[in-house]
Amino acid sequence: VTADAEWAAEIRRLADERDAVLLAHNYQLPEIQDVADHTGDSLALSRIAAASSAATIVFCGVHFMAETAKILGPDKTVLIPDERAGCSLADSIDAEQLRSWKAEHPGAVVVSYVNTTAEVKAETDICCTSSNAVDVVRSIPAEREVLFCPDQFLGAHVRRETGRENLHVWAGECHVHAGINGPELTERAEANPEADLFIHPECGCATSALYLAGDGTLPEERVKILSTGGMLDAARSTGASSVLVATEVGMLHQLRSAAPEIDFRAVNERASCRYMKMITPAALLRCLREGADEVDVPAEVAERARASVERMVSIGR
Ligand code: 13P
Ligand code: SF4
């Protein structure tokens, strides 16, 4: 028995002992994804957390994801293997900033990406993820102004898809996705003219890829703007033999398992999220042994945030 197999067996034993369900985001390390009960994108994992009957949820992901699970299941124990696993995008707006922005646009509907703190969610009308952002905005009457935060690239994508001019976008970004730039993507795409391009809407290069598809530099039918869950669905149905992937590199593990015959390559191999990678095998073992780190959201904040998160899990697929 290898050390890895022993570790995995111990994780599963401790999880059973605690009546815990292990959830892992698509950006987690391969060994964490493989030991988890469920691996998926942020929307799928929120839905699983909401529906789970387990007493404990162990969230292998970043802090706002664990907070979202706690908001949806206040009576459950929610653990994260390392509470320092933050998110640069969630840090790009706080509740005070959102309140000032709302004061400038009275009556506007606030749509916040799930990558926000619980305090920001408490100031929000509807949360969304990259899988359902377009559907969420479409669910809002056309004449209402919309404030979309915090990701400017996802906001630009939603504005493009809905054609909505009364949608105002906050200027936040994720340092990992913003770093995957247009020139790099163009160079890779031109060197691999047969490849599909799977691009996460948080990427700085998403807008330039669509311009290049529009002017014929890139083949339009190959450019796909997708959430991480959407990438997995597309991988199962594309006829392409190679795919260039513009998102955090952890995604390659699920893609390669879903479609082993396809050659998946990262557009930028350095696109690794240091927060996601804080969830190490040792951290997960400690978490299950010690019941730490526990994630709590003050009841009053959770109460105000819950409606916006419940709307998120009920809209879109
Ligand atoms: P999705 O899981 O919605 O694809 O989001 C990606 C992300 O950056 C989460 O941190
Ligand atoms: Fe946040 Fe970006 Fe890391 Fe996702 S990849 S957790 S958005 S910093």
Under the CATH scheme, the architecture of the largest domain is 3-Layer(aba) Sandwich
- Count of distinct strands: 12
Assigned CATH class of the largest domain: Alpha Beta
Total helices: the number is: 15
Function: Catalyzes the condensation of iminoaspartate with dihydroxyacetone phosphate to form quinolinate.
Binding site for iminosuccinate: 25, 42, 113-115, 130, 200-202, 228
Pathway: Cofactor biosynthesis; NAD(+) biosynthesis; quinolinate from iminoaspartate: step 1/1
Pfam families: NadA (PF02445)
Key structural traits:
single chain; 317 residues; alpha/beta; Rossmann fold; 3 domains; 4-stranded parallel β-sheet; binds 1,3-dihydroxyacetonephosphate; binds iron/sulfur cluster
Task: Give a verbal description of the structure.
Catalyzes the condensation of iminoaspartate with dihydroxyacetone phosphate to form quinolinate. Its cofactor is [4Fe-4S] cluster. The chain is built from 15 helices and 12 strands. The protein is α/β, with parallel strands linked by helices and 317 residues long. It has 3 domains: 3-86 and 276-297, NadA-like (Rossmann fold, 3-Layer(aba) Sandwich), CATH 3.40.50; 90-173, Rossmann fold, CATH 3.40.50.10800; 180-266, NadA-like (Rossmann fold), CATH 3.40.50. Helix 1 (3-17) runs parallel beside helix 14 (281-290), helix 4 (63-72) crosses helix 15 and helix 10 (182-191) crosses helix 11. The chain is globular. The N and C termini lie far apart (41 Å).
Concise description?
Keywords: 4Fe-4S, Cytoplasm, Iron, Iron-sulfur, Metal-binding, Pyridine nucleotide biosynthesis, Transferase. The chain has 317 residues and is α/β, with parallel strands linked by helices.
